[in-house]
Structure formats: structure tokens, C-alpha cells
Amino acid sequence: MERNDRSSQLPRIVPEKRLDVFCDVASRLPDSNFIIVGRESPEHREYKQDLVSKLPPNVRYVESPIVLRPELLGESKVYLHAGRERGFGIAIYGRIVCGVYTRMLCRRRRRRSREAI
What we know:
Elements: E1 4-9, E2 12-13, H1 19-28, E3 33-40, H2 45-53, E4 59-63, H3 70-74, E5 76-81, H4 90-97, E6 101-104, E7 114-115
Parallel strand pairs: 1-3, 1-5, 2-3, 3-4, 5-6
Antiparallel strand pairs: 6-7
């Protein structure tokens, strides 16, 4: 599968995933493409509406569980995880197995970024 010059994030749309950080990174890289493929959480409907209303022009939002749109991950060169949790669940390993460069932005005690690979 040919990969696009695109970074992806595939979360539930909740504040803990820090999608505002993902969008901030995207706004600093206006020549790059980003995509958020996610599911709205009923408890956080307002958060999702606010997020989507403020997306930078280079960020595309697709409302869908990733199991219905796996090609969107497979076509991305980078998976950017900005969530507060470490994120080393099955989702991160799946991206690594797919050959997608995975970047973690979780906070550590020393407040520095960590790479997943």
C-alpha cells in the first residue's frame, strides 16, 4: 500500500486524547496533512463540536470507528499519539506492525516526548 504524506490520530473523541495538541502540531506544519478518524463519545459531544469547529485547514476529521476505515491508517506515514496515558495498548502496537511511524507525546516526569519505536 502506498503511503500518503499524512499523520493520523484514531481516538475516541474525549479530552484525555488531547486532540487540541494534535491540532496544534498540525497548525505548526501547514504544508503537511493530518487526519483524525474517531468516534464521538456521547458524554463529550460538546468537546467534539468545539474541536471540529476549530480544526486547522490541513486537518480532516472523519467520524468512523477505525475498523470501518482501516485504509486511512494504512495510508498514513505517521501516527501521532497525544493522549495523556502512555497509549501502549493494542492500538499502538497495531500501528507499528502496519509499518506506520509512531510518535508519542505523553508527559513524563521530566516533561519530554517519548518515541514508541
